[in-house]
Amino acid sequence: MTPAPAESGPPEVPTSLRHTPLVDAHVALGAKLVEFGGWEMPVAYPSGTVAEHRACRTAAVAFDVSHLGTVRVGGPDAFDLLQRTLTNDLARIGPGRAQYTHLLDDDGSVADDIIVWWVDDGWFDVMPNASNTSRVVAALGGTDTTSARAVIAVQGPDARARLEKVAPDAASVGRFCVSRFAWDGVECTAAGTGYTGEDGVECAVPAAAARSFWEAVLAEGVVPAGLGARDTLRLEAGLPLHGHELGPGISPLQAGLGWVVGWAKGDFKGRAALERERAAGPARSLRGLLADGRQPPREGAHVRSGDAVVGRVTSGNFSPMLERGIAMAFVDTSAGVDVGDRLVAVVRGREVPVTVTKPRFWPPAAGGAAVPSGAGGS
Prior knowledge:
Layout: H1 23-28, E1 32-36, E2 39-44, H2 49-58, E3 61-64, E4 71-74, H3 78-85, E5 97-104, E6 110-120, E7 123-127, H4 133-140, E8 143-144, E9 149-155, H5 159-164, H6 168-171, E10 178-183, E11 186-191, E12 200-206, H7 207-218, E13 223-224, H8 227-236, H9 271-280, E14 284-291, E15 302-305, E16 308-319, E17 324-332, E18 342-347, E19 350-357
């Protein structure tokens, strides 16, 4: 993808909305369409976000995530280019695997969070967030193949069993593995990735075959789900969203994602700034906030300990599984806030009592930070 990484600026603003190959299918299903990252996307179907969310946790849903970019990088220099541009160490994996990684700015902040599908020798499909595709092309080169395919994410505990009836080779791909499969006489790619906290498979299907594949998946009892449920699912699972828990001024270390940095490999963009922050310690850290009741702390709300403001909410919503308000927030490390502490989030002048948790809420008994398991969210 050997151009030097470009300086990050604001995400591109399209003059008109783009549409995925499945837009007519969404309209036929009665989906509510909204603008998202320059695309017109389904936010919910008539069943509603809460029902779609619960279907993903208990059975299987399908998301159209074709708005996410695909930048194809190939050739003998592709591996070295990715190694010196992105944070993670591709030497940890190999062909037929996927890896979560970051593109940094010079100040160490996250310009984009990315999934790399290492499809075959010398063939990488780099998956940026929708609004950052041109930024990633500028940084890596390669070919933007986004418009040539649809990406359908089948997610949930029953996802593989339902998908197996449609595309057995896709259903059998391992977690964080990548494989090719045939559908309707065309070559497709499957990856054991997603953005829900559940098991599942993301299928890249040529645009001409996308609707037949989508309808075959739904015919097996998979529920169509929109971006509203995708957001509440990722928040319950503690997965970061670019523009909220990642973005300008936010480093991987602040977001609790230091494991995504390949410190043992060579230089990469933003490394010097990140090393300085590691030596000094990040000034803030990402925490979870569990509300006492249904009222969620909302993005931008101040978080207080006594009379002192110690943080700010980055994402907040109602948890359909816990039936309580949940949020993620950056909290000043100097405040000494720890898991189990009681704080207050101020939502439109109202105090919402919260308990500090690790930034993961579902499943309730899970410990540790959530691991991003698929393409990013915007």
